Amino acid sequence: MRLAVKRIVFFAGLLLIWQVAVKATGVSEALMPAPTDVFKELITGFANQTLVHDLVASFRRLSIGLVLGVLIGSALGILLAKSKTADETLGTLVLALQSVPSIVWLPIAIMWFGLNEISVIFIIVLGATFVMTINMRVGIKNVSPIYIKAAETMGSRGIDMFVRVIFPASIPYAVTGLKLAWAFGWRALMAGELLSMGPGLGYTLRYASDFGNMSLVIGVMIIIGTIGSVVDILLFQRIERNVFRRWGLERE
Questions:
Q1: pLDDT for 113-123, tens place per residue?
Q2: What is the CATH number of domain 35-246?
């Protein structure tokens, strides 16, 4: 409860400082609108269903891309962890591609698929895949040899060993990978939607910028940041805490 109060007081203070600074300096609304102007624009956007349609479209693309990215990344991570040859060859490529920002792939996606849904989903998949691959690989490789030897003495081998011992022991890393895949995928979604031709938060952000509606630009940015924080705090942080507690890895 104290944490929630601290956050509310902090952000309320920021909004107050923002409001006072804008009114005191008399800066143009086209350059920096006051919080009241931003919230009026957001209320209008939700009232006429524009922002609602944007959110639905964005989350639909994110859901498809994130599921594909997590599945592909998990499979690649398992392959790299279990095959030394794949790790020394394909693993190097994965590390290199992980350092490439998702938005860099946007021109290629447009040339391959055009300005459509597939291009945006392609960017999301790339954003989520490589970080999931790396975390899954590390999780499997860091399974304690004691667990493996104990399972071997009980006759566990092959698929049975993986299903009963290796994969469950790597779950904390998989959860961290999922959390990072969400974060990278969310940012990739916004980057891809900036050049999309359909509804979505990124598309509305570009539209507002083109028409000089700074209140809507900042409003959409607030929505993007709020969703990212809320999902992380209410979903992934809770999952992480529960998993770490169950696996005896809870941090003090």
A1: 888 889 999 99
A2: 1.10.3720.10
